[in-house]
## 1
Amino acid sequence: MDDEFYRIKRLPPYVIAEVNGMRAAARAAGKDIIDLGMGNPDLPPPQHVIDKLCEVAKKPDAHGYSQSKGIPGLRRAQANYYGNRFGVELDPETEVVVTMGSKEGLASLATAITAPGDVVLAPNPSYPIHTFGFIIAGATIRSVPTTPDEHYWRSLDKAMHFTVPRPSVLVVNYPSNPTAEVVDLAFYERLVAWAKENKVWILSDLAYSELYYDGNPTPSIMQVAGAKDVAVEFTSLSKTYSMAGWRMGFAVGNRKLIAAMTRVKSYLDYGAFTPIQAAACAALNGPQDIVEKNRQLYHKRRDVMVEAFGRAGWDIPPPPASMFAWAPLPPAVKDMGSLEFSKQLLTHAEVAVAPGVGYGEDGEGYVRIAMVENEQRLRQAARNVKRYFQSLGINSSAA
Ligand SMILES: Cc1ncc(COP(=O)(O)O)c(C=O)c1O
């Protein structure tokens, strides 16, 4: 019997899982690990959203199969969000689909539109589903940079010129996970023009739409005139409303892509539990003060983290958006590599971070620090790191 499964052979061991395993073992041994590894929000969702979930769950008729593409009210709520936030009009029937988190949405779309032999352009470093969603579908990845500078544009052109068959899809993700880099609307304008010229679909992941810190609201690619001709965009309730475990996300935009994805989903799932969808409506339609409150809270954490780690001897550029800092390894430990450094931090400082190499080879030299513990714990993490640096004989200020 052949147990060399085609898709499984294409999935390498998950690097980040190694650190996660060590973290779990340390915790089981009673250690108080400060977990800045996973982007798992530590904040509760708004109370009225939880209340709506409970209220609808009590209805006897709310427990059957739901609608795979999402209940109409939720698709309307998402269309209203795009209208209010970005001034973008969407048809809830044909241009919006509800997904079980944006991760599932990306994977379903990858399944719908790619086949073995297709080439997909994806950033490196990137959030794993941006590559592995397509690898699972059998496609080949050609990496392009994450940093949106002129080198990025040259890489895109080079990729189109030298790749056979020509790439059919480009994935973009700003604010970026893991690098926290951002783009402005002019970037998206150029990207839409480029995609039209090169006949490439664009998949934009906007999971961090509401977590921006320097006063500039994150733009959507859908704000570009004609974006719907070539693009879809994914958003999520996971971070905006701290609802990561609820598995609620959306794809909006190009009708053909939305239809393809909806079709695949109709074979795979019956949609999220109806009370969750009803509660997601409450999140999008209800009071939005929590969004601003959470933004301020992450902003404060960011400032505390950058300042406290800086004093420990680790210079971390303040992320302009997202819930992550993309931190270069301090020069004195650079040779260790990001995986070993993450393990050492866990063992000796009791702080969990995600090794940059887990996001692609170009993530080497960095670790990703998630701001998912409170300010006091972030300060404690910085003190632990300082002690670890000192134990290595590194003067904090020279680390
Ligand atoms: C860039 C990015 N996209 C998608 C996701 C997945 O989000 P969801 O919970 O909506 O599946 C994450 C989660 O961390 C993310 O960082």
## 2
Amino acid sequence: MFTNSSSSKELPEQITSAKSGQSSKPLASTWEAGEPAPFDPDRAMKYLKQLCDLGPRISGSDGMAKMQDLLKKHFENLGAKVTFQKFEGKQRSQPKSVPMANMIISWNPESKTRVILCGHYDTRPIADQERRREDWTRPFLSANDGTSTVALLMELGNHMKKAPKMKVGVDFVIFDGEEWMFDPKRDKFFLGSDYFADNYRDHRPAYTYKSAILLDLFAGINTRFPWEENSRFEAGGLMEEVWDIAKELNVKEFVFERGDAVLDDHMGLNRVGIKAIDIIDFSYPHWHKLTDLPENCSGESMAKVAKVLSVWLQRTK
Ligand SMILES: [Zn+2]
């Protein structure tokens, strides 16, 4: 993901100290109608660490294969239908293509009107925001960049079978090939989401995707989500719905301000008529750096976003 505006823009200083004091309110065990899912921030962090412990998960690598295996087991055990949408990832700068796969995790697959919660799961081959060139090729775990989305979906997955009745089917869609790029002048971004979008347009399934919410860089400490400009332009109504729910639930991280225009996996979805927005905190100071580690992520930040998503899922029709 990158901004259309200057990429060398100064990012605001972030406070990176751990949050003091955990919420003492006990977690509800059931997901009551109209209420947020009883999302467990500690378990979400456990998933995040478990994925990072696999090491880098670059498209086509062993790390990626191990993660796919882990996720397939996780979501099938929870009762979801898991599909791998396989394709070949090609870049102009690379002599060989690499086998890639988007993962589609379907809940109530019989529903003909569906919504998507999505993000990417591949990690970047190079940590190219590091100042020292020799650091670029050191192992890069990408904790908040992609991995945090997968961790949120893993935790939310624990509650989906016990969710209050929804009017829409829900697909968690995890894209491959978002980060698999080597030469920004020649290579394409967003291989997985573009493939998914083209496939949806060209082989129309028996169901319709109504809307999609993309998560990226959303799990840092002290997050802030302004309106991402491309989302506002392409899917302003959906953006308003989601930010209004956040306001109602007193989730103050969703701020009513214009943010950067970010090119990300939601662009392909909007291109084929799926209204899609990106919930992103582009001021995350560890973006594409070796310090993008679990210790710079927060389960509470994940829980706040999940709170908004889980209410939105019930209201959408
Ligand atoms: Zn990235």
